[in-house]
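Archive entry. Fields below.
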Amino acid sequence: MIKTLAKRSTALLFGVSVAALGSAAYADGHALDLSGETVEWIIPFSETGGSARWANFYAPLLSEALPGNPTVVVTFMPGAGSTRGANHFQELEYEDGTTIFGSSGSTQFPYLLNDPRVRYEYNDWNVVLASGTGGVAYLPADLGAALADGGIEAIAGENFIYGSQGATRLDLVPLLAWEMLGLNVEPVFGIEGRGDGRLMFERGEANIDYQTSSSYLSGVTPLVEAGTAVPWFSFGALDADGNIVRDPTFPDMPTFAEVCEAAASCETSGPAWDAWVAFFTAGFPAQKMVFLPAGAPQAAIDTYTQAFQAITERDDFAEISAARLGVYPQMTGDAAVTAMASATEVPEEAQTFVIEWLADRYGVVLE
Amino acid sequence: MDLLATALPALSEAFGMILQPAVLGYLILGVCMGLCIGVFPGLGGIAGLSLLLPFMFGMEPLYGLALMVGMVAVVPTSDTFASVLMGIPGSSASQATVLDGFPLAKKGQAARALSAAFASSLFGGLLGATFLTFFILAARPIVLAFQTPELLMVTIFGLSMVGILAGRVAIKGIVAACLGLLIGTIGEGAASGELRMASYDLPYLVDGFKLVIVGLAIFAIPEIIALLRQDKAISDRQLLGGGWMTGVKDWWANKWLSVRCSLIGVAVGVIPGLGGSVVDWIAYGHAVQTSKDKSQFGSGDIRGVVGPESSNNAKEGGGLVPTLLFGIPGSGSMAIFISGIALLGTGQIEVGPSMINNNLNFTYAIVWLLALANVVGTLICIGAAGGIARLTSIRFALLAPFLFMIIAFAAFQSRQSIWDLVALFGIGLLGILMRRFDWSRPAFLIGFVLSAPAERYTNQAYQIASSRFRRSFEEGLDYIFSPIVIVLIIITLVSVVVGLRQAKNIQAEGAVVSGGKRAPLIFLLAVTAYIGIAYYDAATIPDYARTDRVFPVFVATIGLIGGAILLLQMRIKPETDALFADREVQDRSSNAFGLWPTLGWFAGLLILTSLVGFILALAVFLLLFIRFRAGKGWGFAALYTAAGIAFICAMAALLNRDFPPGLLQSYFDLPWPLT
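PREDICTED_STRUCTURE:
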């Protein structure tokens, strides 16, 4: 093992020093050869978030799958809710295919909500991978039991507290869902990550919460087994025709659509429902994407697409990815392009609805 | 007994796992890498672990753990070198060590201070691990008992340490802490996202300042400049021989202090949300409060080294509890540690609520690898202490450019923007002036560190408590005044009363004579003016975002009252009063160079960097500085420059980092490292 490590560090040093000499890879129109290069993967978040885990999972696999086995290094560029890193990437031009960018739902939402800090344009970039995920809302055991006995009316009078990262983030999706169900949920802002939200739930201060799938599997399933938490609904997943169906990772859980359908207070049509669907579609089924910068030649796009495709087609991919990513589509090629389109375009009515709702309900002004 | 029945088999299994030659080999490899990285101020566990991550995928879990734990464990040990020898806080964990460690180095007792620090670190680490072995099984309910009001009280308790470190004029210390708190609120508010003292046109300010930069600027820059102006070596007398045995004896003489501070370290480290960034200050405050003779604190009392150093390694152990049991990283390096664990093997170790039930043997293996890494790291450090302590006898003009190069590089890692360097320089200037007029820099830093948690927990506790009160009055009261909160309130009150009564005797940064009235008055007016502007800025935040308004307005009000009292006192008191302390008057005879020419060198580096990029600017700076300021020949200067540039490039290449680009780079594409 020590030998392998030494070999790898030599490779790393060699890679870095070759890059230091400034030798550029050539793009001859057939394929990219990245031997001896260092691929820089920019993540616009800190080392602590879900995007970091996602990128750290893919980086070594990508290194193996790209022609020439370049060193793949994840660079973190946090700031301004990921808009800083995205603005930085927007200014880059394609050079030699050694810079890629990983965006997340938190990068998509400011873009969709016309946040003043957004100076990036998704349509300039070239998507090579789109990873989906899901989310699960859950309750403390006593409220879960009340819900099971008396339906949504039994908990409608409760003062709900929810630890939130901010109403304009991904939290928008659960907050809008709970409001549509007629619950009185007060978000406590200033939570630094969803993990802190779960801790607040465990401490008994928050009494409603949601987690994305992989965090739910590792963090909440033990609570459910211990009998302190009860899952309520998943947000669902999209089928090939764009319909919301049960989440393949949680086939036994009802989706929000089912719960809403069953509740008298909630309707699966109208402007609120359309807005929820639009923002769910933007935030979850293609939550994390990998891009090449503007102006990338088709050869480079193909090289990366093939590399990611090779990764997702590995024999052991299901096994190694299940715990860290959940069972979700990892889309490349045309599927990724379609996923990106649906993730970065919402109907104008949905956009207006959410912007007004944020202003009315939370006093958030985006100008 | 139940506990023992589960713990003992897992514990013996864990020892069986870690006491294998290959595991120990990886541990030692990790320790050596950690020591090398920790030595450089501003670079710590995050930089080191990021370096290791690419190798973790699919690695044998035990080997990977040994490598990573070895790396994280020793960073708080080796960063003591910078704190003691240069007065530069190596990381947030060793800020308090500077207060007494550096004066000891100036007295030629660097080796003694270092070995006392290492002995304390080792002891703290081991005691922490022992404590954790039993505590970790029962930790879950205890950690969960710390709800938001409890977290808020712990934060306030941390802030109460300002009382002890306020200096001779207590109100100056309080205003300094208010200033630190206000600087900490700069940027986007956590609750409603409203901007405070920032603008979207200056994106750098939107995220606020990072602790790395503020810590380096407020402690390191003033010391570097002060030493440069005196143009001597750090140590003003002969080095004491055989110092390292003395240090170990010093530790032994204070072993009970060391025990208490280690326990403080574990306890505070266990509480998630504070990240242990105040542990060293609490330990320092405790060391001062429990000592009979307090006159030497701040000018080289060994207890001021033993206390914080015992706590900061113990804290790493404590920090494992939220990391392993809840999957919530207590610090940036712990977050990468979690990512790293997920990559190991087939990903079978899953950090989080199921860790204790499913992987108790791995949990213990991690705890004891941490302890073992402490032993190995300490032995290496004590062995090296005597030699490295000689650095303090080198003429400082030769050391300073090198130090400045590393500090600038470390600061730039914070946000990879040229503004990192501007912030370093600007806050450094504030630090220089605070040092000159004897305003407590520790109080400022405590305020800065605790600003974000204090605001966050106040807002959250208020919001949750309101909801509880709506349910019923009793439930609200139960929530706010839990037994833990009441105990913490009592401890805090005692600490404040005792602290303020003793503050006059404790000069955390040595004695300073008083001089004329004008200069101290101008500085006070400038500080008050900033607080006034911050007040106005916060007060104009509209109602819908009032959660972002309350805290800065409250702090600024206290700061303004303090400033007004000081102004009044300045009118009444004679100019010999401690109020008018001015180091410039005191050091007039020993300063060989003026303040502004010395600062000019660094301002020059900054401006040149913004024009031609860091590496080119650095080359010019090093060459000219060594030739003209240090007065060496051109040949020596060229050699020094080449060595410096080669060193920084090698480090950046290894860590895969870039350098700040300048205007030149926006017109021409240059090869690395000039990019």
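CURATOR_NOTE: The CA atoms of residues 538 and 549 of chain B lie 5 Å apart.
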